Backbone:
């Protein structure tokens, strides 16, 4: 079945079905949160939320939910089923993270300029390092979950 | 849904990876089908049956 969302979905049948489930679940949660925000802003005077904040929370809620469900489902790395491929994938994720931190730092330096003080250097390197650490953590969880799931299916 | 996919595949000496590549799905999907944890579409059932030279009945019909 082809829909306009097909370009966002994986080719594999099982993955496609699961991703559609995650998107549907995320949409229902988003709908509930939007209805709650609407009711609270209209009828509850003591609970008023800024429009910008409400929109931001809604976007994060939807994207965060779909992303976390995908990561925790263990279907991102479908071929990681042995100890060897598991370690290889971890190394690849580490190299990818290092590359990301390097490029992020360079782009940051290009736009913000080269820092002159120590605390400015810490700020410049701190942000890419934190993002890289978070990225690696998610990759690690995804690889570990995929490995565990695939090992059971051999 | 239980099925005979794993038994047939092993008898033919094909790995999960090889079967998955031939029918255009991931190895994980083949593993899930073999374990009965995912019910494939009719289209995928037919593709598996063709690749393993079996009928749909032989692979998927009422396995004990």
Residues:
């Amino acid at each position: 079945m082809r829909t306009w969302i097909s370009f966002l979905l994986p080719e594999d049948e099982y993955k496609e079905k699961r991703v559609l489930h995650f998107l549907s679940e995320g949409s229902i949660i988003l709908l509930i949160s939007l209805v709650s925000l609407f009711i609270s802003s209209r009828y509850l005077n003591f609970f008023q939320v800024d429009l910008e904040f409400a929109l931001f929370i809604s976007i994060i809620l939807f994207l965060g939910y779909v992303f976390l469900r995908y990561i925790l489902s263990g279907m991102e790395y479908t071929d990681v089923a042995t100890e060897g491929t598991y370690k290889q994938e971890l190394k690849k994720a580490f190299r990818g993270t290092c590359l990301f931190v390097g490029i992020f730092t360079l782009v940051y330096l290009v736009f913000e300029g080269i820092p002159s003080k120590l605390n400015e250097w810490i700020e410049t390197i701190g942000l890419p390092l934190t993002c890289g650490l978070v990225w690696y953590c998610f990759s690690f969880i995804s690889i570990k979950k995929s490995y565990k799931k695939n090992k059971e299916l051999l | 849904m239980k099925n005979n996919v794993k038994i047939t595949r092993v008898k033919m000496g094909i790995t999960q990876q090889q079967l998955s590549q031939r029918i255009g799905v991931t190895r994980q999907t083949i593993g899930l089908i073999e374990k009965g944890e995912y019910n494939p579409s009719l289209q995928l059932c037919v593709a598996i049956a063709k690749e393993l030279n079996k009928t749909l009945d032989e692979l998927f019909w009422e396995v004990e």
Q: What stands out?
A: The interface with chain B takes residues 11-15, 75, 78-79, 81, 146, 149-150, 152-154 of chain A (CB under 8 Å). The radius of gyration of chain A is 20 Å. Chain A has a mean pLDDT of 91. The helical segments of chain A are 13-43, 51-73, 83-112, 118-153.
